[in-house]
Amino acid sequence: MEDTRVPTPGKRKDPTCCGKWIGKGEELGAYVGKCCRSPDVDKKRHVELKMDQALLLIHNELPGTNLTVYWNYDGCYQCLLQVLVHASRSGKPGKPSVAAVAVGTQHVSILQLNDTVEDKELCRLEYKFGEFGNYSLLVKHAPDGASEAACDLVVNEKPVDSDLPVTVAFLVGLALVIAVSFLKFLWSLEDFNNWISKAINSRETDRLINSELGSPSRAGDPQPEAWRPSAAPLRLRCLDTFRGVALTIMVFVNYGGGRYWYFRHSSWNGLTVADLVFPWFVFIMGSSIFLSMTSILQRGCSKFRLLGKIAWRSFLLICIGIVVVNPNYCLGPLSWEEARIPGVLQRLGVTYFVVAVLELLFFKPVPESCASERSCLSLLDVVSSWPQWLVILALEGIWLALTFFLPVPGCPTGYLGPGGIGDLGKYPNCTGGAAGYIDRLLLGDHHIYQHPSSAVLYHTEVAYDPEGILGTINSIVMAFLGVQAGKILLYYKDRTKDILVRFTAWCFLLGLISVALTKASENEGFIPVNKNLWSISYITTLSAFAFFILLVLYPVVDVHGLWTGTPFFYPGMNSILVYVGHEVFENYFPFQWRLGDSQSHKEHLIQNLVATALWVLIAYVLYKKKVFWKI
């Protein structure tokens, strides 16, 4: 851990600070320099810093004025400021009192200093502190007398670059991709391939030619060709690649993501990397439902038998999910009174059942002429699904009605906020509005997630489950949009332009809906993008991203064969095994080990990257051995 002491300023005897200003304004500024260490600082500077924290020293030079310092992140929407520290009055002129405290460094911090007795604001500061940095906030009388106090921020020790490990990891990964791609390109060149073959096998070739085992015909054998998509692939490789990308990111963020905030779920509204992957997994599941169902029914399987398989697979997913989200880690038997019921696999199971049954009930064979005739109706992939669309729209109507019109005791109707200290602390127990209320009413407080992401920033105290009952409706909508992607791929097979045009149209349409619902803002829209609620704007936004990714992957992977999907293709082919395995073995070596410095982003990042890479390697080995876990 970095040394957080205020540095000794060499031979200077002047106890004042020196350096340069980095802010603007007379009442409030930021100042880079070094402050002389005083006995008061020595006594109060012993604050043990953790990851994503900096040391802040409050120097109160106001005689007779006790200070209360309030703090919060600027990303905490309409939040009450929280008391950070109290700074007592200055005892003697020129000898300030000093209070030391740790402040967060993940986002821009808001600091407000009030007179404790009069509860009057003296100054206010917004500043982005750096990890393990050392700062001083000098509070003194304003020199111009225009205001009661001036607050000057001083940087005593510069912070570390906490994002450097991520940058290095990205550049190393990019270099590997470029190197492998370049080698593949060289290997595809016939002259280079022949030159390598001659250089490696020249001696062996001479020996074979001069022996009775030599065969002139061997010299003309063609080299194995690189992987190319077949004319009629049994499986669209881009879907497995997309699923593998989502699953690999999911494993990485579930293992900690190097403990970076942008690899964790958003506290409430907005998106981080961790918020992207689960909806994409649901989307690809929807595409796979239609493609696999069409294939099975074309082989002569009866609908009744297929319905039984759908019900059994859904039941297994739900059961496995309940086991996975309720580990005891050798702590004794788990009480049924506290078992969590919702979860990722549980939601996948319910979503799969509803969407698969819906498609089975209204299944129509794919017109054989559609793939070749230009006269085929341009919106056939949508029009042919009008019964399913009616059901989906009805379900979305139910979500909207319950979300905005269901009375929730003690909360405003239609509330979408996080509760806690959000919304100026008016609704502390209203986390999630109707969604949270339905879960607590039907499942009970002890059977849903006890540590929601909103607790970190908004200090919520009630349980809330991001995989709850109401959000499952929009999960079904997400999967059905994935079904539409699958229909496009099958209805317009071998018509690449038509497929890409439809992917582009869906991408723009869903994007425009998202802009309208959110007003292109994080918190000010009609329905903000929210992973905890699985809001409809969250669905349209992530679906637009999904169509865009398929717009890129389909021509690159399946049409032109420019990329085989390696290495993401392999976990995509064994997704259930990789997901369940990474959850079960999370705390076991070699996926986790004791770190030398538990407060280091670099060590956490290395551990999480190694663990993720191991699961990709396991998926590759299983693929080569043709071992697949199917439910």
Automatic annotation (TrEMBL):
Domain of life of the organism encoding this protein: Eukaryota
Domain spans labelled Heparan-alpha-glucosaminide N-acetyltransferase catalytic: 235-355
Record keywords, A-Z: Membrane, Transmembrane, Transmembrane helix
Keyword Lipoprotein: no
Species in which this protein is naturally found: Vicugna pacos
Lineage: Eukaryota, Metazoa, Chordata, Craniata, Vertebrata
Keyword Transmembrane helix attributed: yes
Residue stretches spanning the membrane: 164-187, 244-262, 277-298, 310-329, 349-366, 386-406, 469-492, 499-517, 537-556, 568-585, 605-623
Protein name: Heparan-alpha-glucosaminide N-acetyltransferase isoform X3
Name of encoding gene: HGSNAT
